[in-house]
Amino acid sequence: MANMGHTKFKVKKHGLYWTVRYWKNDNGVKRLIRERVCPVAGPGFLFNEERRRKAKEIIDAASGKIALPDVLPEEGKDKINFKEAAERWLKKSQYRRKHPLKKNTLRLYRHYLERWIYPVLADVPLAQVKTSKAKEVIDRMHERESSASVMADTFHIITQVVASIRNAHFEPMFNVKWNLEEIDIPDVRKKQQKAFNS
């Protein structure tokens, strides 16, 4: 069962259909709603990951949220900005099957986004986030005497967010060739190094 506003939910068989259930506020009265996701067999059948994706879309639509799809059509690539992509990446990274983000890492990434990245990139179209934009972030951090390890972590987040948006073939939509020499992050000393959990 899924509650409105929560990410966790279950898709269960109900008769001839896979369904998802959620609470809906109807004029101040809470009602438990069941909606069909897809048939258990035949035309319209969806595999597990597709079922969960569609169920999430149903819940988001019912709560008034607009969910970013896992893939974007080519014509949508210029409409998504960095912050929208970053929030989607951060949320999805918590629930992926391989190496999901732990709570401490999530808090750290959130801090880096809000402290260093969003002031520069939040409203920038993702298609425009390339070496020059990443350099703006790192230069600002250097001016404020951030450590090399924090700069490296922050740049890692930028590259992951840009690479997270996929096309219809689940391939990265933005294949950016980062010029590391221009971005110029200092070498991280061994005592500063931290292992990424992403």
Brief digest:
The protein is of the alpha+beta class. The protein has helices at 48-62, 82-95, 103-121, 131-143, 148-164, 180-183; strands at residues 11-14, 17-26, 29-39. Helix 3 (103-121) packs across helix 4 (131-143).
Structural commentary:
The chain is an alpha+beta fold. The chain has two domains: about 10-60, no CATH class; about 75-190, Tyrosine recombinase, N-terminal domain (DNA polymerase, domain 1, Orthogonal Bundle). It has helices at about 50-60, 80-95, 105-120, 130-145, 150-165, 180-185; strands at about 10-15, 15-25, 30-40. A three-stranded antiparallel β-sheet has the order 1-2-3. Helix 2 (about 80-95) packs antiparallel against helix 3 (about 105-120), helix 3 (about 105-120) packs across helix 5 (about 150-165) and helix 4 (about 130-145) packs antiparallel against helix 5 (about 150-165). The longest helix is centred in the middle third of the chain and has 19 residues, at about 105-120. The radius of gyration is 20 Å and the shape is elongated. The model is unreliable at about 1-5 and about 195-198 (pLDDT under 50).
